[in-house]
Amino acid sequence: MSKKPTTRHLEEILRSIDSKDELQDYLSSPETINPCHSFIEYFRSLPKTSAIVPADLYKLTNLDRSYCYRIWDGSKRPGRDKILLICIAAGLDNTETRRALESGGEAALYPRNTRDAVIIYAIGQKYTVDQTNQLLDEMEMAVLE
To answer: What is the pLDDT of residue 113?
Structure first.
């Protein structure tokens, strides 16, 4: 099994490209570009989330049931906090959560931001949504809603 190229390696490849044809080859290479074009595509592509269905999602996240179904069918694009709720509920790690945020067009968690630092810690400790929100509340920060 071959290893995925690192971002640094991909940046080096991009800097060495001198033609549109080479760029097209790079863009069509499955190991370089994330094939998922939305958060829900990325989320559903993960092996650990394959058994999750919308009914589970709303129970795990405390989000509105119809909202979860709209996220699931792609008709609703969740914001940053909703993506974080879903990732935490599914037990995703920090790398998977970062990729989920990126695929959803949202900013990655930033360790210099105090609220983000608490969320990074909670994800690393495998906290549930309720535990994460309790920790945020104890630290007098906005909970994930």
So the answer is: 96
